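We close this part of the discussion by returning to an individual protein. Part of our work consisted of pairing the sequence of a single chain with a tokenised description of its backbone. The amino acid sequence and the backbone structure tokens for this protein are reproduced below.
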Amino acid sequence: MVNENKVNTDRFSNAATERLYLDKWPGETDCQAKYDRGEQCGGCSFFAPLNEDFGICCYNRSRHLTETILEHFTCPSHMNEGWGPHSFSDDPALHCRCEGEGDG
């Protein structure tokens, strides 16, 4: 199944992506390791939150671009910026370092 190309705010928009999450990325030990280290979509520079749980992947290098994803999902293209504001940049020098606490 492919992305439905509509914004969902309460579930994954792609059933195959949800299955990856539920099955803990079978055959993708890199993704499981990132998840275990806390490198999840909620901390990715390219995660646009919709609510407390779901957001849109905005990273053009991600296979999940434009999908609604759970903040606790992850992918091989994860660009860790932290769980505060996001810069939508793959340049770490431009990443926010405030973690949501004041200026950064």
User: Anything to note?
Assistant: Strands lie at 47-49, 54-57, 68-70. The two ends are 40 Å apart (CA to CA).
